[in-house]
Design goal:
This protein has 271 residues and is an alpha+beta fold. Helix content is 34%, strand content 25%. The protein has 2 domains: 145 residues, Fructose-1,6-Bisphosphatase, subunit A, domain 1 (Fructose-1,6-Bisphosphatase, Chain A, domain 1), CATH 3.30.540; 110 residues, 3-Layer(aba) Sandwich (D-Maltodextrin-Binding Protein, domain 2). The structure holds L-MYO-inositol-1-phosphate (LIP).
Length: 271
């Protein structure tokens, strides 16, 4: 069993190489094998969709990772759940931005993270529709297609482009709409990409100056959160909390506090 102090450079390099391979192969499969008429089911609400390709992609990720590391554990959005014995657990979102994929829109991603003793040490977010692969190693920086990336430094929140997202429950969406109505006038503008992992990577490379959202699952946050942090972003919840389903706020040091302080009184961590 590998513990946190035993995260050797060799293990990290192995996990990164595997994460890059499986994320890019799965992204390629999702593009090349997308059926013309994509069927779907629903999960938590009638708008929370899952397609046959979500399931196929998660199965491919599990097969490839297990073939290489049979003793690792898994946590996947589409049901993958296995306790491993190696101390390594893979946190997988086979398609983050499923609605985008279903509608043939850009901005969906394959998100692959590896935890060692419960801490994310490797994260890869493949965004095929942008021909971009974001990657990060804990303590080793973040890259986009192999080139180092860093967060932006806008002069103020009023000059900041901020990403966000909305849940699938209509009551939560009504609350989130009321909150965004308060944020919109005090920032440059808002964008809603539709995939948290992409939003977080956009903060990492400076396409967004900030991002916030309520309701992120571990698989939405794991890889993109590491990429953002390693690119210089602070990724946190409200009032110093860890990022969680309650709230995730990500931004560079130039505007994190300003964005947090606008959000805090609105209590975006509550429905
Ligand atoms: C998506 C999240 C996104 C959120 C969407 C959706 P999914 O995940 O990544 O941040 O705004 O509503 O939940 O469901 O496409 O994997």
């Amino acid at each position: 069993m590998t513990g946190p102090s035993e995260v050797t450079e060799l293990l990290t390099a192995e996990l990164m190489a595997l994460a890059l391979d499986v994320a890019t192969e799965t992204g390629r499969m999702l593009v090349d094998e997308r059926p013309a008429h994509l069927g779907f089911g629903t999960k938590t609400t009638p708008t929370d969709v899952v397609t046959v390709m979500d399931t196929k992609a998660e199965r491919l990720l599990l097969e490839r990772i297990s073939a290489s590391r049979p003793d690792d554990g898994f946590l996947g959005e589409e049901g993958a759940a296995r306790d491993g014995t190696s101390g390594v657990r893979w946190v997988l979102d086979p398609i983050d931005g499923t609605v985008n994929y279903l509608y043939g829109l850009p901005g969906w991603a394959v998100s692959v993270a590896a935890e060692v003793a419960g801490e994310v040490v490797v994260g890869v977010v493949a965004v095929p529709t942008y021909a971009e692969v974001f990657a990060a190693v804990r303590g080793g920086g973040a890259t986009r297609n192999g080139t180092s990336i860093a967060v932006s430094s806008p002069s103020s929140l009023a000059q900041s482009l901020v990403g966000t997202g909305f849940g699938y429950d209509s009551r939560r969406r009504a609350r989130q709409g009321a909150i965004i109505a308060q944020v919109l006038p005090v920032v440059r503008d808002v964008r809603r990409v539709g995939a948290a992992a992409v939003d977080l990577c956009f903060v990492a490379c400076g396409r967004f100056d900030g991002y916030f959202e309520r309701g992120l699952a571990p698989w939405d946050l794991a890889a993109g959160g590491l990429v953002a942090r390693e690119a210089g972003a602070r990724v946190a919840g409200l009032f110093g909390a860890e990022p969680s389903r309650d709230q995730v706020i990500a931004a560079g040091p130039a505007v994190f506090d300003q964005l947090h302080d606008v959000l805090a009184p609105l209590r975006p961590d509550r429905d």
